[in-house]
Design a protein that fits this description.
It contains seven helices and five strands; from the N terminus they run E-H-E-H-E-H-H-E-H-E-H-H. By secondary structure, it is an alpha/beta fold. The chain has a five-stranded parallel β-sheet. Strand 2, helix 2 and strand 3 (about 75) form a beta-alpha-beta unit. The mean pLDDT is about 85.
Length: about 180
């Protein structure tokens, strides 16, 4: 089980040029350097890669290959998106808010698609932590059914409150038939 881990987050849309590191060669070099440094530690930690939901299937194929080649522990799918097409907020309001990533419900479908894609392409060879649009036990179960090993909740906590964790746990226990 992944209790403590180190995240290489090259997916933040708020850091200029950071997402360029998701390209195959720079990403592979970065992960190899982090893994080498981690291996020198007396007590190393699993390394996970956090990716953007805006990657193409070709880029996702590269991610699978890189994870398998470097031997890092897994992937966190996904961070916030640059895609604002699903927002119902007026275009003027969106423009006045400015640049930055979008999270929450609008991210749910794409995040789940990426989890499913990575899981299928990798043959389930590495853990995937599912993130994006989890506001209920049903949302968490959807990520798990797509191939996630674990889930993380962010925006759901803001909008649903801390009781969301208990509701998700209860739903997962029912789902697993416990």
């Amino acid at each position: 089980m992944l209790r403590h881990y180190f995240v290489v987050n090259v997916s933040s849309p708020n850091t200029p040029n950071l997402r360029d590191l998701q390209e195959k060669e720079p990403l592979k070099q970065l992960l190899e350097a982090v893994k080498t440094a981690n291996d020198l530690k007396e007590k190393s930690k699993p390394i996970l890669l956090k990716i953007a939901p805006d990657l193409t299937n070709g880029q996702l194929d590269d991610i699978v290959e890189i994870v398998q080649e470097t031997g890092i522990a897994g992937v966190i799918a996904t961070n916030t998106t640059l895609d604002r097409s699903q927002l119902t907020t007026s275009k003027d309001t969106i423009e006045s808010i400015g640049a930055g990533g979008v999270s929450g419900k609008v991210l749910a479908r794409r995040s789940t698609e990426i989890i499913r894609y990575l899981h299928q392409k990798s043959g389930g060879s590495f853990p995937i932590i599912g993130v994006g649009g989890i506001f209920s036990a049903e949302d968490a179960i959807e990520k798990l059914e797509a191939g996630a090993s674990l889930v993380q909740v962010y925006s759901g906590m803001v909008y649903e409150g801390p009781g969301l964790v208990k509701k998700i746990k209860k739903g997962l226990l029912s789902f697993k038939g416990v």
